[in-house]
Amino acid sequence: MLDFRIQTFLSVCRHMNFTRASQELHITQPAVSQHIRFLEQLYQTSLFLREGKHIRLTPAGEILLATMTQLRNDERAMMARMRVCAGEKRTLRFGVTLTIGEYIIAEPLARFLQSYPQTDLHVHFGNTSALLEQLREGELDFALVEGYFRPDAYETMVYRTEPYIPVCAKGHAFSHPVHRLKDLLSQRLLVREMGSGTRDILEKNLALRGMRIEDFSHVTQVESTRLIVSLLVQDCGIAFLYQAAVRRELAEGTLVQIPLADFSMEHDFVFLWNRTSAFSSEYAHICHALSTL
Fold first, then answer.
1. If DSSP states are collapsed to H, E and C, what string results for the chain?
2. For residues 202-213, average pLDDT
3. 27, 139, 157, 262 — which has fewest CB within 10 A?
């Protein structure tokens, strides 16, 4: 069990406020200050910088936060495994981004469950940023994402590499010839919400060319890849999506890839879990099984 003063430290880090930490923990604010002073004396360093009414972590505080967060997460994972020893079912908490969850993961999950019938899975959907936050907070054991992340914070395993393509309805009428990315700016762009890996990749590719999503004449934001595909089929605009999300529509001919001379890319779908986890080898084994079964 983590020391109660470490619990106080983690609460202060969540809120960056001593008063709100005291309210969360149901202790007095002087007690919160006392716990932080104890840790600073124990580790012989300052953990927070006071800047008027605000505080922020020192570099030493950042190290303590990262280490103790992972210890807390591993403690929770350890307790879950101990309950398995006592006869409870084993449950894995697995996060997937929406595109992967809707179009990619069903068959690998089915093969995994057939091969490991004693294991229960809780599959959580979310955009990349939400899943990364849940990993940091210990709410997930591992995740499969398509968005960008800090590689130094996670152990990773590439699941597959997927083409990322511009698409529109077959017979979509362009007002002028389209050869390059900038030729699409007069179109209505259908795009996922902020925090989505699908959107993040597009934003970064546009930025490399000095463009933004806002440069398109019209932008429709949709929090579902499946709905974007349906709108595309009904000729409501263009979109940039993973090929897997539109494979059926491309094969049926209801959607077509927009040929661009200056846009061709692929992106990895990546399993990841917290780098310093004591259960890293176990997560690697599970992700390998999901990749190869």
1. CCCHHHHHHHHHHHHCCHHHHHHHHCCCHHHHHHHHHHHHHHHCCCCEEEECCEEEECHHHHHHHHHHHHHHHHHHHHHHHHHHHCCCCEEEEEEECHHHHHHCCHHHHHHHHHHCCCEEEEEEECCHHHHHHHHHCCCCCEEEECCCCCHHHEEEEEEEEEEEEEEEECCCCCCCCCCCHHHHCCCEEEECCCCCHHHHHHHHHHHHCCCCHHHCCEEEECCCHHHHHHHHHCCCCEEEEEHHHHHHHHHHCCEEECCCCCCCEEEEEEEEEECCCCCHHHHHHHHHHHHHC
2. 94
3. 262
Query: How many Cα atoms within 13 Å fall on the side-chain side of residue 1?
Result: 3
- Measure Cα distances from 169 to 173, 208, 244, 256 in Å: 9, 27, 16, 6
Between CA 172 and CA 62 the distance in angstroms is 52
Question: pLDDT tens-digit profile of 59-117?
Answer: 999 989 888 888 888 888 787 777 766 666 778 899 999 889 989 999 999 999 999 88
In contact, 266 and 164? CB cutoff 8 Å = yes
Amino acid in position 236? C
- Nearest Cα residue to 262 out of 185, 205, 190, 217: 205
Helix axes 4-15, 29-43, angle to 10 degrees: 110
What residues have CB less than 8 Å from 260, skipping those under 6 apart? 166, 178, 179, 180, 181, 183, 184
Contact 253, 168 (CB under 8 A): no
Q: How far are the Cα atoms of 16, 18, 56, 58, 181 from residue 50, in angstroms, in the given order?
A: 10, 11, 7, 10, 48
